[in-house]
Specification:
Elements: H1 6-21, H2 25-31, H3 50-64, E1 72-76, H4 82-89, E2 95-100, H5 103-112, E3 117-121, E4 133-139, H6 152-169, E5 170-183, H7 193-199, H8 208-215, E6 219-226, H9 228-244, H10 246-253, H11 255-273, E7 277-286
Parallel strand pairs: 1-2, 1-4, 2-3, 4-5
Antiparallel strand pairs: 5-7, 6-7
Helix pairs in contact: 6-8, 9-11, 10-11
Length: about 300
């Protein structure tokens, strides 16, 4: 069994995130929507634009943590700050903290100078807030927590650590809104080596069963939805936009990188269409008696 220290895991996670997300903001800007939301959108109909669908996704998570009345919110894996921007400018949240491992993303968010927003280049395992939050949002970060060489039991321990920490970071009436890709009708052993090695190194997806087991006794699952066709459509739209800007993208990052991303978007869309992957949107509420401490161990 491979034993990895917390420091080693954090270093490997940071390197993997930089490998993917620090390709360049200008490159992503060519094919993402104007909010730079790099995660599954929430589509309502055939006439939706990508911008509308991404805005609906953001509202879903903001509503889940009751952002309109929140005084403080944590965004784990904040990306280019779409959630943080809306917490600050739309909802007037006094304190919003974003965690990312990408230096380019952090620099971009800081350049926007949103009131009340702090962005930190920090792994969630190292986060030690001075005060609790009213809500926690995490979109697209959870699938980076575990590694392909880890057993299901090891993955569940990591996920439980995350849930236990989130529980301790939240007020008793707070909420965690989580969005993650997960394995569906596919075994982890059948996962694409191309995506695991060249796109998202050292990352492995959860299953819904692993998430539920990890959260048991720490959080109550208030709602769960599967948006796999939403993600297929999102990926297809990203691919269409990348093809439309292929020349500009090639000038920015080179033909090999463009070809790699085009292949990844196409393969991923197919995986969602076929039901091999799913997209989980979950809302968790803490159990009120605080029976579990920072490590998920009964007091």
């Amino acid at each position: 069994m491979v034993v990895t220290t917390e420091a080693q895991r954090a270093d490997e996670a940071a390197a993997a995130i930089r490998h993917h997300y620090d390709v360049g903001n200008d490159f992503y800007r060519l094919w993402l929507d104007s909010s730079l939301s790099y995660s599954c959108a929430l589509w309502a109909g055939p006439d939706d634009t990508l911008e509308q669908a991404q805005e609906r996704k953001l509202r879903h998570h903001l509503d889940a943590v009751r952002a309109h009345r929140a005084g403080s919110v944590l965004d784990v894996g904040c990306g280019w700050g779409a959630i943080l921007e809306r917490l600050s400018t739309t909802h007037g949240v006094a304190r919003s903290v974003g965690l990312t491992l990408s230096e380019e993303q952090a620099e971009y968010v800081r350049s926007r100078d949103y009131p009340g927003v702090e962005v930190r280049i920090e792994n969630w395992m190292h986060h030690q807030p001075a005060e609790r939050f009213d809500g926690i949002i995490s979109i697209g970060a959870f699938e980076h927590f575990a590694r392909p060489d880890e057993t299901a039991a090891q993955k569940i321990r990591i996920y439980r650590e995350f849930f236990a920490r989130c529980r301790d970071w939240l007020h008793d009436d707070g909420a965690l809104s989580l969005q993650t890709i997960a394995y569906a009708d596919m075994s982890p052993s059948d996962a694409s080596t191309f995506i695991q090695q060249e796109i998202f190194p050292n990352a492995d997806l959860p299953t819904f069963a692993e998430i539920a087991q990890a959260a048991e006794g720490v959080f109550e699952i208030e709602s769960v939805g599967n948006g796999r066709l939403d993600y297929a459509r999102t990926l297809e739209e990203w691919g269409r936009r990348l093809r439309a800007h292929r020349d500009e993208a090639t000038d920015l990052v080179g033909p090999e990188t463009v070809a790699r991303y085009a292949r990844y978007l196409k393969l991923s869309a197919l995986g969602f269409r076929m039901g091999k992957l799913c997209l989980l949107r979950l809302v968790f509420r803490p159990y009120s008696d605080r029976r579990f401490g920072a490590r998920g161990v009964a007091a």
